[in-house]
Amino acid sequence: MPTPTAIEVGRRIATIRRTRRMTQADLARAAFVSLATIKAIERGARSPSDDTLDSIAAALAVDTSHIITGSTRTDSRVHASIPAISAAIAAYDIPGDDSPLPLHQLATGVAHLTEWRLAAQYARIAEHAPQLLTHSLTALHHCTGTDRLRAAQLLATTARSADAVAYKFGHRDLSARLVELMRWAADQTEDRIAQATAAYVRTETFFAARAHTQGLAALERAIDASPSPLGRAATAARGALHMRAAVIAGRAGDADAAGPHLAEARRLGDALPEDAYDGTQFGPDSVRAHEVSVAVSLGRDHLQRALDVAEEWTPPPELPAERQSGFWIELARAQVWAGRPDDAFESLKVARHIAPQHTREHPWAREAAATIRRLKRADAESLTAFTEWIGAV
User: Would you call 281 helix, strand, or coil by DSSP?
Assistant: First the structure.
């Protein structure tokens, strides 16, 4: 007899498939599995393996957590990958004997990591990052000339995606090592934009240590060292640094510094279409999302600004899923402070719908959910289920 879990998974797959206007045969082709397998899974007669579930989720353009609600699969898969990621970079500066992959083949794998990072699909990154880190390091040590510069770029991008997993899932020591690896690789690219990107990501180590004043100083040095904003990539690089500096100034409680950085980010963002450079999204919408982040970081006295932004603007679907969900999580925090727990709960649910893995691992989402639960102790069953899912009870 089919298990309840298999039935629930099958129903969710069928529901999402129909919303995509796909037939079972369409899904089977897109997921590279047999039609009989899709039929058996949808009626609950068969539970998909991890690989099959990943293939179906990719074909439906959703994260596996959309299909298996409340499962700890993602957590366990990510944490299980951490030793392999650590081992892959343990001897990063020592050349090995392996033959490098062709750079075009390596670039394809690295591009997938970036796509998954922007979509907050951390389990998929965790599965592939160890091997891609190894291949990227091998390429860097064996290539020469312009190929070596390209290999350094690929290594920096791979380290950044792996860091997203380590940082979001609380492995802060490994995150710091990956950030340093990214900076080491970026220095070898001879590309000031790559170095600016590494400085942007390095801010995570200051966030983790709550060393906000030092982090702001590091970012301001990086801004001074970044290329002049002439051209799209250079403008985006400098604008992203100002955007990040505004946030960390907010965390430092330094409104006098946050305001000018945010204004400069807005000026540079208005000169560009919303676009990604080297995996970092920057443009007018990204700056608007960060206005909320800065206001929340500055504390309760500034929360009305966060609420005002949300009244007139919400993230468009073209923004990366992680950035969209981050907006809703930070808005939920402001709504809690403003005494609007119902609105805060709705914001958290939107964040989960967009990027469940990101929402579940975000400490502010967990804190907001716990506060809402205390304020509405006798409220709907859906709130209880949410707080259990996010680990706030």
Answer: strand
Question: CA 302 from chain center: how many Å?
Answer: 26
- The H-or-E segment that residue 276 falls in is strand 275-277
* Cα separation of the two ends of the chain: 33
pLDDT at 1 over 50: no
Q: How far apart are CA 169 and CA 187, in angstroms?
A: 27
Judged by average pLDDT, the poorest of 83-87, 137-141, 299-303 is 299-303
Contacts (Cβ under 8 Å, ≥6 apart) of 168: 122, 357, 358, 361, 362
Give residue 283's region: left, alpha or beta (phi > 0; psi -120 to 50). Answer: left
189 burial level (CB within 10 Å; 0-12, 13-18, 19+): buried
From CA 225, how far away is CA 219, in angstroms rounded?
10
Q: What is the CATH number of domain 1-62?
A: 1.10.260.40
Residue with tokens 């080297």: 278
In this predicted structure, the answer to whether residue 124 has a pLDDT above a threshold of 50 is yes
In this structure, what DSSP letter does residue 102 have?
P
CA distances from 381 to 215, 307, 339, 373 (A): 42, 27, 21, 11
Please count the other Cβ atoms lying within 10 Å of the Cβ belonging to residue 367: 16
Beta bridge partners of 282: 275
Distance CA 74, CA 323 (A): 20
The overall average pLDDT reported for the chain is 89
Token code pair at residue 392: 């706030």
Per residue in 148-164, pLDDT (tens digit) is 999 999 999 999 999 99
For 262-319, write each residue's pLDDT tens digit. 999 999 999 888 765 556 789 999 999 999 999 999 988 898 999 999 999 999 988 8
Average pLDDT for 227-253:
93
Long-range contacts of residues 347-350, Cβ cutoff 8 Å, at least 24 apart: 348/372, 348/386, 348/390, 349/386, 350/325
The C-alpha atoms of residue 158 and residue 166 are separated, in whole angstroms, by 13
Cβ pair 328, 309 in contact under 8 A: no
Exposure of 276 by Cβ count < 10 A (0-12 exposed, 13-18 middle, 19+ buried)?
middle
Parse the chain into domains and list their residue ranges: 1-62, 85-190
Extract the tokens encoding 169. Answer: 């899932």
